Each structure stands twice: as C-alpha cells, then as structure tokens.
Amino acid sequence: MILVAGLGNPGREYEGTRHNMGYMAVDALADDLSLSFDKKDFKGIYCRYRNPELDDDVILLKPETFMNLSGESVQACASFFKIPLDKIVVVYDDMAINPGHIRLRKDGSSGGHKGMGDIINKMGTANIKRIRIGIGEPAFNPVDFVLGKPKGDELALCEQGIDLAKKAIKDYLLRGFDHAMNAYNR
User: Fold this and answer.
1) Band (51; pLDDT cuts 50, 70, 90)
2) Of 19, 101, 113, 179, which is the active-site residue?
3) pTM flag (> 0.85)
4) What tens digit of pLDDT does each residue of 74-114 get?
C-alpha cells in the first residue's frame, strides 16, 4: 500500500492559498482518476484506489489538522494501514523554490516547513519522500504570504507547479520515485 499525503489547511478561507498547494495537487490527481475524498478518518479525508499497474492500493490523504499538526494525520493513517516509510510521499508548498517548479527528495530536513516538520517529528525520521511545489520567496510577512492567494502570472505559475506535482505523483506510482526524481528535478 502507498500513501500520498497532500498538505494544506481545511476550510473555505484557505482554499486556493499558497499553503494549500499539497491539497491542490492530490485534488488534481483525484480528479484525473475520477475519485472523490469520500472517507473521513485519521484526522483527515481520504480516498483509496487500486493501482492496476502496481497491483497495489493507493491512499490519497488530506490531513484536516491544520498544517502545523499534519503529522498526527499522516502517522495515524500509516499506522492503521501498516504502510512502511518507504511507501509514503508528502506533497507541500515550498518558499525556497520558484513558482512553477517542483523538487522531489527522498529525505532531509523540513526546511522550516511546519507541516513537514511535524510529520518528521511524529514519524521519528526524516527519511520520508516528498514533492515540494514552489511558491517563491515572500516580499512581506511569510505567514501572510503563505496564507494569501496567488494572482495573475503568479497564479498561472502555481497552477503549472500543481500540474507538475500531479504528473510526478503519477510517475512515482508507475515507475518509482527514482525515475520521477530524474524526470522532474531539472
């Protein structure tokens, strides 16, 4: 079984914000697969499907704990389904990457991202795959920036990043994480 967790904050006031790029990427994948987030458990909402190419089940999870407590949901889901660490990938926004770009990593620090930091803390390791979607450096208060909505050219670039993340998830599910890293880390 594979777990793909897209990070964000629940509620209408956070829809479309830079901090919800992880939610938007897994939403885009669910749309492509004609899935809906119809299950509620593990302090989040999720959907599950059978990946025929891998002969494996995939869970798409959106934690509803708010960003800083994302680890509670990811850890509860992984524990319940007995998903090993090497079968978990987390998708989230990253200010250190320009809008329209993504980066895939197999492990590492949180880079200051509170959601990823909580996941690392709750899982007890930094050896967690991740797909980071660029939102760029803020010109003002970082909290206001990540909770703001991109507009104009920046919105188009963020949408491009979400689409790339969706494609990278698909590539990971079909060909493995190393293949996806080689294809998308440019």
Assistant:
1) confident
2) 19
3) yes
4) 999 999 999 999 999 999 999 999 999 999 999 999 999 99
19 has catalytic annotation? yes
SS3 sequence of the chain: CEEEEECCCCCHHHCCCHHHHHHHHHHHHHHHCCCCCCEEECCEEEEEEEECCCCEEEEEEEECCCHHHHHHHHHHHHHHHCCCHHHEEEEEEECCCCCCCEEEECCCCCCCCHHHHHHHHHHCCCCCEEEEEECCCCCCCHHHHHCCCCCHHHHHHHHHHHHHHHHHHHHHHHHCHHHHHHHHCC
